[in-house]
Amino acid sequence: PEEIAQTIVFLASECSSHTTGQLVYVDGGYTHFDRAVGHDHNKW
């Protein structure tokens, strides 16, 4: 919940004024970890 709230605050702020057409994954770093290490989803 805290990480989702922080993402919403960022997207609603002036800091994100140049952020357009992006997918923002809020998953605790799972997506980044999965791609970096090459884990198989079935093993999780």
Overview of the structural elements:
This protein has helices at 2-12, 30-37. With 44 residues, the protein is an all-alpha fold. It has one domain. The longest helix is centred in the N-terminal third of the chain and has 11 residues, at 2-12. It is flat.
Tell me the strand percentage band.
under 5%
According to DSSP, the number of beta strands is: 0
Q: Which regions have little confidence, pLDDT < 50, spanning 5+ residues?
A: none
Instruction: Compute the average pLDDT.
Output: 79
Note the main attributes of this structure.
44 residues, mainly alpha, 2 helices
How is this structure best summarized?
It is built from two helices and no strands. It has 44 residues and is mainly alpha-helical.
Give the topology, please.
Blueprint: H1 2-12, H2 30-37
